[in-house]
Fold these 2 entries.
Entry 1:
Amino acid sequence: MLPRVGLIASGVFVSLVAMLKRSPLFGGCLVLAALLLTGCIRLNGASRPLPPTPYGQVPSTRQLRWHAMEFYGFLHFTVNTFTDKEWGYGDESETVFNPTDFDADQIVSVAKEAGMAGLILTAKHHDGFCLWPSAYTEHSVKNSPWKDGKGDVVAEIGRACRRHGLKFGVYLSPWDRNHPEYGREAYITYYRNQLRELLTNYGELFTVWFDGANGGDGYYGGARETRRIDNRTYYDWHNTWQIVRDLQPFACMFSDVGPDFRWVGNERGIAGETCWATLNPGDGTPGNTKANLNQGERPGTHWIPAECDVSIRPGWFYHASQDDQVKTPAQLLDIYYASVGRGACLNLNLPPDRRGRIHENDVRSLREFRRRLDATFAENLAAGATLSASNVRGKHRNFGPGRLFDRDPNTCWATDDFVFTPELTLELDGIRTFNVIDLREHLPLGQRIEAFAVDARVGDEWQEIARATSIGNRRLLRIDPVTTDGVRLRITGAAAAPALAEFGLHREP
Ligand code: FUL
């Protein structure tokens, strides 16, 4: 009924404008027209409910882009690859950097085949050696024998990423064990100059990654001493971050506490069983927080979701001695479910070897990991189900449970305001066996759901098969295989009317 009233009102409005346009009273009638128009919107509005009001902190556009990536990689590559170290002292000769068969396309295509959406290269690690020919130091590829000093690893990886459709990001270690001025004001100018080079010469960056290792002993231009800095004040982070905002507005910045995404608190790739995207980072400077990085905090003052960084090998850099310690496909899957599956992004490190390629053992493991993931998520066994929800916002199909199966994170099943604990029953299109449950919240409205449970129908009874807390970008629950034709999702706790974007049931082989 109401949409028709709206249509008639719109029709009357259009004819009125056409008539009055020819009249000398047209100007004055604009006010009347505006009033009528408002009325129309209200009438139509009643039939098509507005989305729920966002709850608490919500992600920025750049953070939403980052969330959507879910899985990307790190490339740890520098003089350490050739000296067999994890942390170079800063006195390494530039001549040690000499990959014998560097192949950016091989590196990037391995990442792409593994399903990564982007790569982050260590443009400079703690040893200070630069993988691009920086104008501000001699300690770089330009003084290495590789390509007669004409090479630029940052440019080559960046271009290969673009060729293969991956996003590109850089790691620029704040700690620099080579630079003579490290610990003093002059180094900050140097660091910012380098940052500007990377932000302006290598196309769009999806991230700038600021690691948290800061100060200690080093070469420091020959001083060979220990230099301590106060991480809260030395880098003047807020002004340093501003350079990134000015030059790459869509780059998300990582440090232990953000500002755009945070460290998950361990280098094993494991997010908290409960993992909120919000945090109370204090004044926001690294080293000045007691925030719970692994689980996040709720309600938090900022939207700073977690990134799980972990290496495919024990070390971040390539060591031939670790060729037999590459994580197995099963270990990689466990990490995936404990990171992406808990609403975080997974940043998996692949260290190029001394040839400048990803080693065959790593490639083998990644391929099988990807094969199993693809097999698992190829089909959503809930997609053909008949749905009945205890509540639908405004009883309108725009917010109906059908939205859970459109593979569009921008639509959602939402409830009326103050309906916090709805239920959804799914009559599956046959008897199905599944062992993975997949949910996503509609992130632009914030993290609303605090607890949920899933039941399977066994005979005439509902039996609980899974329960968990946070969802956020994504929640994956691995369970023992369940065979049934009836499933029920119960939202058991929420801070605001739930807005769930996707729901899936899958079978992991
Ligand atoms: C840390 C560094 O000390 C490690 O070498 C590695 O780069 C890791 C990702 O970040 O802060």
Entry 2:
Amino acid sequence: MSSPAPPPCPQPAPGGARPALTVIAGPTAVGKGTIVAELRRRHPDLFVSVSATTRAPRPGEVDGVHYRFVTDAEFDQLVEHGQMLEWALVHGRYRYGTPRGPVDAELAAGRPAVLEIDLDGARQVRRSMPGCRLVFIAPPSWEELVARLKGRGTEDAAEQERRLATARTEMAAEGEFDVTIVNDTVARTTDELETLLGLAG
Ligand code: 5GP
């Protein structure tokens, strides 16, 4: 009697396996939000996590679309009940976090998920989900980043200084990321991200 055939080796997915969870981070004012908004416009079905935050909505921001705007007490509850995949105090002022449930549901269904979060959050996700892919969005130059932050005009001078200090630290962390994409134009940067996510064409 011949022995049973060994089980087949798992085959890599055609084109190589893609990590299901992609984390997009980069310095403040680099334009991550704009890139992710363009990605969503091109791929309305792609799951992009909606973060919870304790900061107030800016004009035009919609609760549940741009962020889930919550009180400090509500944020405390989410953390205490283990409902945050990661969270961080950003720019030393407000808390931001990724609700765990929707991300887990997407990954369990075999669909890709995208997070746009700060450096601290990206590090936490890497620790809890080592198979994720970290993408660093970089400015074409430091001078360009400063110009973008000042040109945005949504923060006062003191807040701009705080954000520049954070940006300096964030720029130094590029080496921790798997991939860097330079944000020169929205269209080209989104093309590159699309290719990376396997959504191009
Ligand atoms: P803004 O207040 O300008 O919308 O965002 C400020 C910063 O918070 C950005 O750098 C953004 O990446 C970060 N951020 C947004 N959502 C999250 C989140 O869920 N977790 C973490 N750690 N950072 C976030």
